[in-house]
Design goal:
The chain is an alpha/beta fold and 264 residues long. The chain is built from nine helices and ten strands. The strands form two sheets. The protein has a seven-stranded parallel beta sheet. A three-stranded antiparallel beta sheet has the order 4-8-7. β2, α2 and β3 form a beta-alpha-beta unit. The protein is globular, with a radius of gyration of 18 Å. It starts with a strand and ends with a helix. The structure holds 2-phosphoglycolic acid. 2-phosphoglycolic acid binds next to loops.
Length: 264
């Protein structure tokens, strides 16, 4: 895992946006794995800004989102499809037919999960998968106890996740308890993964992911198995890492090496 520590949340978003910009300039038809939640919003705003400035185009790109609530239609304001339209898709030049979010209103969710895997494969696999992390260590809606080789499937949400996401629902509004999520195995198949975490509330989950054992108790720890996982943290999210100074040292060495190679 490459651990990148940035001074604040804005710098985390900037670092993440640079990763997408670099990929799209090298490979305009890249397959992007996208995420919802509050963490990616600042990154999406930077991508929108770069698109509006003419620096970036998504015209040839394809996207696959990590997850969706089961039981919500794409038009539902709390659905992740709706979130993506509002926060990104409607504001950039990505072709609507190239954007994929698991169908929360599928008549047959089990078949829909298989179809989602097939579509990812047919698109050539995901080049860069963006991730947040839940306070309980989930990635996508892969809650603790998720199989480390799991594929896209229906997953029951924990009470902790339902509680954390209740802020997005108005009081008394129906809040789904089930989801469709890419599996941990699906995420690990991405050629590169980019996990962003900001704020002290994520510090324990970040520590378990980076320094804890590989365990289904912390699904994000599965990223320890990935060949190209980049974890970008602000100071608060990094604050409980025991080897913080070592990670900073590695990053400085990486930067020096890139400078020497003329790649920074
Ligand atoms: P958040 O959610 O970005 O809203 O904190 C992250 C997640 O639950 O994966």
């Amino acid at each position: 895992m490459q651990i990148v520590i940035q001074p604040n949340a804005d710098a985390v978003a900037e670092y993440g946006a640079d990763q997408f910009s670099r990929l799209l300039s090298k490979k305009p038809d890249a397959v992007l794995g996208l995420a919802t939640g509050s963490t990616p919003v600042a990154l999406y705003q930077k991508l929108i800004g770069r698109y509006q400035a003419g620096e970036l185009s998504f015209a040839k790109a394809t996207s696959f989102n990590l997850d969706e609530y089961l039981g919500l239609s794409p038009e539902h304001p709390q659905s992740y499809r709706y979130f993506m339209q509002q926060q990104l898709f409607d504001l950039i030049d990505i072709a609507p037919e190239h954007t994929h979010v698991p169908p929360g209103n599928a008549a047959d969710p089990i078949t829909a999960c298989h179809d989602y895997e097939t579509r990812i494969e047919a698109a050539g696999g995901i080049d860069l998968q963006l991730l947040g992390i839940g306070r309980n260590g989930h990635i996508g809606f892969n809650e603790p106890s998720s199989g480390l080789r799991s594929r896209t499937r229906v997953k029951t949400l924990t009470q902790a996740t339902i509680h954390d996401n209740a802020r997005f629902f108005t009081e008394g509004e129906y809040q789904p308890h089930l989801s469709i999520t890419m599996g941990i195995g699906t995420i690990l198949d991405a050629r590169k993964v980019l996990l962003l975490a900001t704020g002290e509330a994520k510090a324990d989950a970040v520590k378990a992911m980076v320094e804890g054992p590989l365990s289904a108790a912390c699904p994000a720890s599965a990223l320890q198995l990935h060949q190209h996982a980049v974890v970008v943290l602000d100071e608060a999210a990094a604050s409980k890492l025991a080897d913080l100074e070592f990670y900073r040292h590695i990053e400085r060495e990486n930067q020096l090496l890139l400078q020497r190679l003329g790649k920074s």
